[in-house]
Amino acid sequence: MRKLYVVFLIIEFFLTGFVSFSNSSHLNENSLILLLHTSRISQHIYCPRIFLDVNSLWELKKILGRILFFQRLEQSIIKTSRHSSLNSQARIYWVKAGANGDGTAEDNPAGNITYILETYDLTNAIINVFPGVYDKSIEEFPLIFNYSNLTIRAIYGVSKTIIKGFIPEVFILEQWATIIVRSPNVTIEGFTICDGYQAILIEGSAKRTIVKGNILENNTCAISICSSHNIITNNTFIDNYIGIFVGVWWSGSHNLIENNEFKNSPIDIVICSSNNMITKNKMYSGILLDGSVDIVVSQIIDTSNMINGKPIRYYKNQADVAVPENTSQVILANCTHFLISGLNISNTCIGIEMLYCKNITIKSNYLARNIYNIGVAYSEYLTITSNKLMEGACGFSFIMLITRLS
Q: Is residue 112 part of a domain?
């Protein structure tokens, strides 16, 4: 029997756990000392509490290094509710790529979205957008939505109306988002939004934003959420590095993410804020959860979230549970005396994630081709034995640990 003492890198952790590995485990020596060769903090990225190999995940360094610049945001106590700004009092504006009208009538559309945003008071307004490509040749990015009760919608199909962002060669704070929402009760519907750094940034004052029926493709991070009571529903996420980042700077709460589909994303959803509901999503790589114990136990993540037809299983504040074998990803928050055995988990962001847990046994599992096979934070007394752990996408099996053999 080999003993390993787990030491967390970040100063706030200061928690030493005990982990035991059976000699029959298929771990190799490189897996056990995964961070010893780059143990200086300067060689890693704080993400937060998630350490990633710089050489392997440069793109994630860019997204997590640059989107975490927004102010901490005020708490909200408004109950999550669906809303609609489409009513008989709404003023309607029209946009068609390359036209030269003033946008006040369907037969007199403006030539770009920027013109409408900069020309009119759009409080309680609707912007109808005709098919076309809206890129930097005709738009000034970011498109900033500063008016409440504003709806912008593509009127003839999501695949025909494309907002094409870009990543500037020189970092300029606001240019790293294609769309920035800064006011409450904004709806974005029916577009393809692609090729940007952040497709949509929902800032702290932009509560109750609805993003529905869009395709978000080939962005570094498709949607970043810094506020509360937003609804992300019926969207398709394709080839983004991160699909949705909920809780930038641990801000915002009570967001609903439902009925979305994720395709070919290394990380589907990052959650760093409290009281969010994740339900009925068809996922590709799953969920990365982070934050204080109050944050990680406050989520609603049900088994209707699937990866390849198998449910994601999130447990909080539970004890004495054996996790079913029909599982695509395991997330434990403040749990004790769990048995995780006989699982086959592959191609997720983190196969098994444990936060604030104690006395967890992980044995006889097959974990392969996950970015990280096992992730641990603030946990102790773990037994990991007789597993077959193939190298993760970063070349090792564990995150957030430096191991010391004794």
A: no
Does 45 map to a domain? yes
Cα gap 136→203, rounded to integer Å: 22
Is 260 within a domain?
no
Nearest to 361 by CA among 389, 386, 327: 386
Calpha distance 69→62 (Å, rounded):
12
Torsions phi, psi of 288, nearest 5? -115, 120
Can you give the residue range of the structural domain that contains 324?
1-50+312-406
* 300-301 and 277-279 strand pairing: parallel
The reported pTM is: 0.80
Tens of pLDDT along 39-74?
222 232 333 333 333 333 434 434 444 443 332 333
- Is 258 among the domain residues? no
How many Cα atoms occupy the beta-carbon half-sphere of 189 within 13 Å?
18
Instruction: Report the chain's C-alpha Rg in angstroms.
Output: 22
Domain count, the chain: 1
Contact partners, residue 66, CB within 8 Å, separation at least 6 = 171, 176, 197
